[in-house]
Design brief:
The complex is a heterodimer of chains A (about 450) and B (about 525).
Chain A lengths: L2 E4 L9 H24 L3 H6 L2 E5 L16 E6 L10 E3 L10 H10 L2 E5 H9 L7 H7 L3 E10 L9 H14 L5 H16 L5 H23 L10 E9 L3 E9 L6 H21 L3 E8 L3 E4 L1 H6 L8 H15 L5 E9 L7 H16 E9 L4 H5 L7 H12 L3 E6 L2 H12 L10
Parallel strand pairs in A: 8-9, 8-11, 11-12, 12-13
Antiparallel strand pairs in A: 2-5, 6-7, 9-10
Helix pairs in contact in A: 7-8, 9-15, 11-12, 12-14
Chain B lengths: L17 H18 L7 E6 L1 H9 L10 H15 L8 E4 L4 E6 L4 H21 L1 H6 L5 H19 L1 H13 L17 H17 L16 H14 L7 H8 L5 H22 L1 H21 L5 H14 L15 H17 L3 H6 L9 H11 L2 H8 L2 H7 L2 E6 L4 E6 L6 H11 L2 H4 L2 E7 L7 E7 L7 H15 L3 E7 L5 E6 L6
Parallel strand pairs in B: 1-3, 7-8
Antiparallel strand pairs in B: 2-3, 4-5, 6-7, 8-9
Helix pairs in contact in B: 1-4, 1-12, 2-3, 4-12, 4-13, 6-7, 6-11, 7-11, 7-21, 10-11, 12-13, 12-14, 14-16, 17-19
The chains are: A alpha/beta (about 450), B alpha/beta (about 525).
């Protein structure tokens, strides 16, 4: 008689911890892969793609292994039908068409892939990005709740009784249990009273009266047993605490669409904003985005027009800043809103206007804005010249004066799609040294 | 077939309960011990669910194992295949321990449970207990308590030093697992828990009190005499027991940067690698033995009228699946199936003993026609590993049956050449080549620690003894070398030396590798 042990009731998922460790590791690997893909210029795809699958390279386990493409090896194989000694067989692609038992498992492990949904990709993509200061504000202020009506509940305080719902329940119950109505009882009582006034004596009459009295009695007892309003009928209004986002933010996207902005420049700017847009949509549930495009005059437009309209003209950058100022005054008072702005331009501006832009920023906007990012789109050949110097367009030089004075102002240049993500990280990465708005 | 006609049946339906399991076990045991003459550890049969089975074989098939992400990876991988129907679950899992633990899956039918009991609880169990490799190299009675210690020790390390630090050491140790076994020297037996504890304490004490700074002997002077230098080098090698094939052992004992707990983790990985080493050398024999045993026992039970025809059909179907060997040009061809080869060879031995042909008498004069096939098989199971077993017992009849042929494959040739086929001239060559392919000593890269100057730059020199010009796969080689550096702490280089010509084929060093 062997020793039988029933282990079925033992806890399952013994390997749960291992799986969690594996997924954590795989996640780091996926993050790295996604960053690489973004660097190689596929930012726009991030939004379009439904899923990405990738081999789990970083989670492989290396070991010293013989290289199947070197040296001389001998294989013993089963199932020969036509070969004779000395026959020469052309090799199939790689490996010589032979393998040992180990080769089979090795291959299938390589096929091991992850399929990521778009959501997961974005999650990984934005994981360590934050809007500057936003988190700090959030952490400091305690979250407030607003009570919001959310249906009914069977328990609660008397002040919250919902009379309408309670009465409806009571009515339904009374019908269902056939509670005698007042009218019924009154009719019966009237009948009895009438019979009582009539001359008595006849047996039939007395029997009838007795019957009626009994009926009245049973009705009344029934009425007492089935109350008009029973505790089970009572319904209270239910309230649910709803968190109130108290750090509301608005993001201004300013873009130059003048003639000097060629296809390439627009494309880069678009990509920058697409990324930004994705980032905001992802990170913050309640955030307004205002799109302002400008030529020699500026206007607030919707997202679609912002990215895809073909309007063009001269360039007066300050109009965009004025438009932004107008929108802020109208809809986004600075004491209620955290205001962020990103401006993309090629730096071309009508002469004299750049100074006006700088002074607009100095005097008005920087005091209102939590953060202002200026991205200048330059020619790839210019990168080497301008990359590290302060020289550049009039707008760039004018903005340099702002840059020195306001810690919440950032400016940078990009020349090719691969620049965008690093720049984006630089602009919007966590910046612990940044000062809060005074 | 009416029930009345079969009063002897051990079980009637495919449902099982503990009573039928026990009754069937007893019937199987009777045949296994009395008829086949098997000698087994006491059995412990555990009923588990399919999830538990997945859990079990994702952590290298052990009931107790420390935590590591790679086991999680294996689980996700197996689970993925299983759910997509690409792979069925193993019907059984058996652990080389005393008592021998066999897992039975609750989803199996009674016929399958009987098959698994015969296969694992008697076939594998007998093999584990009697084969010389297992007897010499593993310690069945100590392994479970050792794994229990390992699991606790590693989780204690994780608490004290953080999971990432432990994981980093384990990753590196796992990469060198293949190089973590003694191939020729018998490892010390697993000692009891207490002794180990004492040894660990002593080691820690030594580590704490010994410091190289207090070395008082002066260096041997600025003697540039080349013979003096050579003598020093050879002395150094001798003191370090170089060359050393067990990389993990060398690192555990010699690395200057490892803390005691890290050494202990290396030791744990090494002990486990050593424990599994005989299994890898006896795949064909072990599976062949278990398959032969279940086949014989099941047929015997059927002949006695203890298994119904329906159940026997089910058993035969599983058996046929297990020993299926597709040809090399079949898309399902995964290599030579160890179950098929082992089973066929053992049946062949039985045939040679009982009913030999003239050819068999030529090839196997010792056993042909002696009649006592049980004795022959028991002896083969006890005293061979795959390589020697094939070299000794693969018969021409079987080479013809499998239609085996030998292919030589040179890397710089676009053609493979058929060197030998299953005919008179080819038998020897095929048998030798097949046997060699099961010799881990030749199929695994041979990497040895050659030299290190502990008082100098501490550069660790490894040598890969290249056989037949087979190099290492470069990406995994470099990644593995990084792991060696991680454990060694200083630069590591690997040189590939051709065994025949002595010529250095390649050299690589961690200095050239980017991280």
């Amino acid at each position: 008689m062997p020793n039988f042990i029933d282990r079925r009731l033992n806890p399952k998922d013994k390997s749960l911890g291992n799986r969690q460790r594996f997924l954590k590791r795989a996640r780091e690997e996926l993050k790295r892969t996604i960053k690489e893909r973004v660097k190689s210029g596929k930012i726009a795809d991030v939004d379009a793609e439904q899923s990405v699958s990738m081999p789990a390279r970083g989670v492989n386990e290396p070991a010293f292994q013989p290289d199947s493409n070197s040296g001389e090896r001998r294989h013993v194989l089963p199932g020969n039908r036509e070969f004779a000694a000395g026959d020469r067989i052309p090799k199939r692609g790689g490996g010589g068409g032979a393998g040992n038992a180990g080769a089979g498992t090795g291959q299938s492990e390589d096929e091991f892939q992850f399929a990521l949904s778009r959501e997961e990709v974005l999650d990984l993509f934005f994981e360590d990005l934050e809007l500057p200061d936003m988190v700090k504000l959030n952490l400091k202020e305690s979250v407030t709740f607003k009570r919001r009506r959310a249906g009914f509940t069977a328990s609660g305080s008397p002040t919250n009784i919902n009379v309408g719902r309670t009465m409806r329940n009571s009515y339904g119950r009374r019908i269902a249990l056939r509670r005698p109505s007042r009218r019924e009882i009154e009719a019966l009582a009237d009948e009895i009273a009438r019979l009582e006034t009539e001359p008595r004596g006849r047996i039939k009459h007395r029997q009838r009266l007795e019957e009626l009295r009994q009926k009245l009695d049973s009705l009344e007892r029934r009425r007492r047993r089935i109350p008009y309003v029973d505790p089970v009928d009572i319904r209270f209004n239910r309230f649910e605490p709803q968190p109130l986002p108290n750090a509301s933010a608005v993001m201004f996207c300013l873009m130059d669409v003048s003639a000097s902005m060629g296809e390439r420049e627009k494309d880069l700017a678009k990509r920058f904003f697409v990324l930004l847009h994705l980032f905001l949509k992802r990170r913050y549930e309640r955030i307004d985005i205002v799109f302002i495009r400008h030529t020699d005059e500026a206007g607030e437009v919707d997202e679609n027009t912002f990215f895809y309209s073909k309007q063009s003209g001269g360039t007066v950058v300050s109009t965009a800043l004025e438009e932004m100022l107008r929108v802020i005054r109208e809809r986004y008072p600075a004491h209620e809103w955290n205001i962020y702005a990103a401006q993309a331009s090629d730096g071309e501006n009508i002469s004299g206007d750049s100074e006006r832009c700088a002074s607009l920023l100095h005097d008005e906007l920087m005091g209102l804005c939590q953060y202002y990012a200026y991205v200048e789109i330059i020619d790839e050949r210019e990168t080497e010249i301008f990359g590290t110097t302060d020289n550049g367009t009039s707008l760039w030089r004018a903005y340099r004066t702002v840059d020195g004075e306001w810690p919440n102002f950032q400016m940078t240049r990009i020349a090719k799609p691969a620049d965008i993500y690093p720049v984006f990280r630089k602009l919007f990465g966590k910046q612990p040294e940044m000062q809060l708005r005074k | 077939m009416s029930k009345g006609a079969a009063p002897n049946l051990l079980f009637h339906s495919s449902d099982w309960n503990f009573e039928t399991l026990a009754r069937t076990y007893d019937a199987i045991e009777e045949i296994a011990l009395d008829d086949l003459g098997l000698d087994v550890y006491p059995n412990q049969l555990e009923i588990i669910s399919s999830e538990q089975m997945l859990d079990a074989y994702s952590s290298v098939g052990m009931p107790l194992m420390y935590q590591h992400w790679s086991f999680g990876k294996r689980f996700v991988f197996e689970d993925h295949l299983y759910r997509r129907g690409r792979r069925g679950l193993a019907y059984e899992l058996v652990i080389n321990s005393n008592p021998c633990i066999t897992y039975l899956m609750e989803e199996n039918t009674m016929a399958m449970q009987a098959l698994v009991t015969a296969h694992a609880a008697f076939g594998h169990n007998h093999f584990f207990k009697n084969n010389y490799l297992f007897r010499q190299w593993t310690d069945a009675s100590a392994i479970l308590s050792y794994l229990d210690f390992a699991k606790k020790y590693i989780s204690k390390c994780e608490e004290r030093h953080g999971t990432p630090a432990v994981e980093a050491i384990l990753d590196s140790a796992h990469a060198l697992m293949e190089q973590g076994v003694f191939r020729y020297r018998r490892p010390p037996r697993l000692s009891t828990e207490k002794e180990q504890e004492r040894m660990r304490e002593r080691l820690e004490y030594e580590e704490q009190t010994y410091s190289d700074l207090w070395r008082t002997l002066p260096p041997s002077g600025e003697n540039n005499d080349p013979t003096q230098l050579e003598r020093e080098i050879s002395e150094r090698k001798k003191s370090l027991n170089l060359p050393e094939e067990n990389l993990l052992y060398f690192l555990e004992k010699t690395s200057l940067i490892l803390e005691p707990w890290q050494r202990e983790i290396l030791r744990i990985v090494r002990v486990i690698a050593q424990y599994f080493y005989p299994q890898r050398q006896t795949k064909v024999m072990n599976e062949g033995c278990a398959t032969f045993v279940h086949y014989t026992i099941m047929n015997n039970l059927f002949d006695q009228g203890k298994i119904s025809e329906g159940a026997m059909l089910e058993i035969l179907q599983s058996h046929t699946n297990v020993v299926f060997q597709p040809g090399f040009d079949d898309p399902r061809f995964p290599g030579i199936n160890p179950y098929a080869l082992g089973f066929a060879m053992m049946q062949d031995i039985e045939r040679i003993c009982v009913d030999p042909t003239a050819e068999d008498r030529d090839w196997f004069p010792e056993i042909a026609g002696i009649g006592n096939w049980r004795e022959t098989l028991l002896d083969a199971w006890a005293n061979h590993r795959d390589e020697s077993f094939i070299l000794q017992f693969l018969s021409p009849a079987l080479i013809r049956k499998f239609r085996l042929f030998l292919l030589t494959d040179e890397a710089d040739d676009n053609f493979c050449e058929v060197a030998s086929i299953h005919n008179e001239r080819g038998y020897e060559a095929i048998r030798t080549a097949l046997a060699r392919s099961y010799d881990i000593g030749t199929s695994q890269p041979d990497i040895q620690v050659m030299d290190v100057d502990l008082l100098g730059d501490r550069h660790l020199r490894l040598q890969h003894n290249v056989k037949d010009g087979v190099l290492l796969e470069e990406n995994s080689r470099d990644a593995t070398l990084r792991h060696v550096r991680h454990l060694w702490g200083y630069e590591v280089s690997l040189a590939g030396v051709d065994m025949e010509t002595g010529e250095t084929l390649y050299e690589c060093s961690t200095e050239e590798l980017s991280d």
